[in-house]
Amino acid sequence: MKTDRLNPFIYLITTLLWTWIFWFGAVLTGQSWLQFPTLLLTVLGFCGPFLVAVLMVKLGFWNGNVRGFLRNNFDLRLLSVRWYLYLLGFVLLLSGLPLLIGSLIFGQSINHLTDFSAPTVFILVGIIAGAIEEPGWRGYAQKGLQSHMSPLNGSILIGVVWALWHVPLFLLEGTYQHSVGFGTSGFWFFNASILAGSIFYAWLYNAAGQIGVIAVLYHGVGNAMREVLSFTDTDFTVQSIGFGVEAGIALVVLVLSWKFMTKRGEIKSSVNKNPPLINRE
């Protein structure tokens, strides 16, 4: 599919402005995000990546219609069984490996390192985040940027905007980011993890044949698993372990697919045939 009608730069700027207007407005209320009317402002800002993407598709900034765009991002039938197995493996690696490394470093069992949290509102928000964010970040922006630059450069640009997009949450009472704190070591690890994660998302999206639903599932399920299997403590060492695993995963796929990830120009998508993302020379 040609991407001459996509405008990922307008999308990224509009999404950032949309969300910031509502989220900084929510911050100015001085309330927790779960209180009314702050909740309404928070939800409207949260929906920015999805709503802006759908609006741009509706306005013709997409070589297709809204129905096709939504199908690419939500139709589970587009993925073969093997991709669900890969997805499960990636999620377990992302959430379980930090605990395993922590167990070796601290000399404690995994049971002592984690709370195995019961379902909370953050788990629900984490799952929904995949459906709200990924149709925009990967389904629209990554697709469009790859007609102007390499997948790697596109993922880095998205990662920067994605990190900026989260900034108001560090000032909004009641959010996970607020508990981390603005300007803390956790703040910087969070943003660094977003940049590393954006590279992996770009690889995953392309490896699956540019099917957006793979990013939606990975984001939602990954958030939920990391909420359930989280460290009890969140000191600098724990933060370093979490970031190290995410950065390590991104580095591995980047090295193995360097030729593809640094290729400039439009990259064709395919539902039935995946592009050769692993270098074989």
Describe the protein's architecture and organization:
There is one protein chain. This protein is mostly helical. Helices cover 68% and strands 0% of the residues. The longest helix is centred in the first third of the chain and has 26 residues, at 81-106. The chain is globular, with a radius of gyration of 19 Å. The model is unreliable at 270-276 (pLDDT under 50).
Secondary structure category: mainly alpha
- Radius of gyration (CA) equals 19 Å
Bin the strand percentage.
under 5%
What's the pLDDT, averaged over the residues? 89
Main sheet makeup: none
The number of helical runs is 13
Helix content: 55-70%
Overall form? globular
Identify low-pLDDT runs: 270-276
- Strand count: 0
Q: Summarize the helix and strand pattern as letters.
A: HHHHHHHHHHHHH
Distance between the termini: 28 Å
Describe, in short, the structure shown.
The chain is an all-alpha fold. 68% of the residues lie in helices and 0% in strands. Helix 1 packs antiparallel against helix 2 (38-46) and helix 1 (8-28) packs antiparallel against helix 7.
